[in-house]
Design a protein that fits this description.
The protein has about 450 residues and is an alpha/beta fold. The protein contains 13 helices and 19 strands. An 8-stranded mixed sheet has the order 1-10-12-11-13-16-14-15, sandwiched between helices. Strands 5-4-9-6 form a 4-stranded antiparallel sheet. It has a 3-stranded antiparallel sheet with strand order 18-17-19. The chain is elongated and about 90 Å long.
Amino acid sequence: MGILQVYNSDKTEQNQIGDSVYQLIEELFPICRSITGDGVRETFSIIQKHIPLKVQEVPTGTQVFDWVIPQEWNIRDAYIKDKKGNKVVDFKKSNLHVLNYSQPINKTIALSELIKHIYTLPENPDWVPYRTSYYNPNWGFCMSHNQLTSMQDEVYDVFIDAEHTNGSLTYAEYYIPGTNKEEILVFTHCCHPSLCNDNLTGISLATFLAKSLSEKNLHYSYRFVFAPATIGSITWMSQNEESLGNIRHGLVIAVAGDNGCMTYKKTRNENSEIDRAVLHVLKNKGEKFDVMDFSPWGYDERQFNSPGINLPVGRLTRTPNGCYPEYHTSADNLDLIHQSALVDTYTTYMKVFYVLENNKTYINNSPKGEPQLGKRGLYRNTGGHRDIENRQLALLWVLNLSDGDNSLLDIAERSGLTFDILVNAALDLTDCGLLIDKNASA
């Protein structure tokens, strides 16, 4: 089964994809994840019901480039109680209520002291912020600003049942072999707790993209990596440095289910084949999209594009991180994401993979003048350039530029024709002996 099928999926198939992706997000939503800990392992265990993830544990204290794997963090319970025993904040109702990676505490303190360890969003007083303290030991709670302003000036029992222990950082990957050992890398971060768009959408879409690709005949091999942001991608690269040269293209998938338009952030080179493939797909969707130049800020694409690694990894999202008001708040919930957006993101990724899979360079076997297409059943009986259909125009463009130097993507960019039309033209010309795959002839 070829990857071209994604162009022809019907509404029933699209709805099935949307349902599956959304249901996995729902299942993962309650889990408290962090850069280490059992929440990540539980998440991977659920994903393993869909794809055979290989889980790796990297011990605390391991040097990973300029970083060191921190102690593992796990939390069981946390709350703030007033003097009547009422829970003002309850971790079991929302894991966003605790500063992620918080130190444990069990004491009674005055509101004047407690408030120094409380984080709110005064500009959105009903929302709870998501805050972390991975590398700066601290304890704290997050709550809505309305909750804070309703608290009485009295003493409170504060309790965080958490521990930092020598354990490990956990990441997982799924490798899908193709006919070529060169790889396409898909990376998604798995460290955020109950936040849907950032990044349960990336986790779930990566899962079902991998599941779909595993059922297809592939030229490239694919490697899907699920790891914590920053420290996770750095750890993965450090642990796999000797094989990074196999990666030909890469994409970071995140914030992929909101109603914003597709947004692509270019690689460090800004003209890599993955850049051109994504932009071709986006331009031919007929919908609004945004493009961002590379910058060393954002998600894990900045790690893959660091000068000592320099892998061509772009980032394909919907509304970028930090550019929607619900970002890193309790409002990034199931209501923010939409199945139609999830399906659109899924289909866009599959179309990009289709371009990469089929971007071959051909050689014209009859380059002296235009070969007679009519006798090969490839040309209309009547001529006239004004009524030449795109298919026939594609045949001529492919023949003219197939000199061993131009790929189909080069031809698509120059001709203005869509990539899939050119692929079909190349296949027809190959079948009748007018073209040969450059790599096959080498």
